[in-house]
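Re: weekly structure request thread

Next one in the queue (231 aa):
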Amino acid sequence: MKMLSMLLARGAVRRRSHVLLAILWLTLAVATAVVRRGSGADAVVIHTLGAFVVPLTAFAVTSAVLGGGSLADAVGWLVRFGAERRSASLAPFVTCGAAATTLVAGVALAVVFVARPPGAPLGDGPTTAWIAALGAAAYVSLFLAGASFGRRGGGRLVVLVVDAMVGQSAGLAGAFTVRANLRNLLGGTSPLSLSQRTSSVLLIALVLAGVVIASLRLRPTLARAQSTRFH
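Done, posted below.
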């Protein structure tokens, strides 16, 4: 698994446009925090980090690993060159998840540090970091599941758009999106007045749902790839 993840990560680094996009979104969060320095981190965390930086960074990382193709394209060649099917199907989740969660967690800490009023404690930093990381993990999982649809994985863009539109709702529909539950955890409006614990559970459920959907979608593709494996 570690070797497969390294191979995917190496390919992602070569796709500079996607890497630069991820850096751009991360820089946006820090720049916004600098502009609002001293006025408190809440607005930056909710309206910039949670609403834009976390989903767009996860999307850029996922696109970098997939290379503009579908999830099946990204993992099929691993199986053809001898990788075990289960390891190959999980490798993109490990690679994208590790990269996206690390990036957004680090930026979340930086945002809280920069935007907090002078002398204010840093206690919210670690909490904001793990919430941002959980949101990134959920986005990555659903983007990868979306990338199992369409010849070039265009389903991941559909996931991004639907989440952005439906996630604005504080009603039932919003409760099933990453955006609304992430907003709740970061201190914003709660969908259906859900508790933060419930939103945490729902985000974890979305992570698992993405993995299950992608695994089911990949079965026929990986079976064909295994039958044409190079020896």
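DSSP finds nine helices and no strands in the chain. The chain has one domain: 2-227.
Next request, please.
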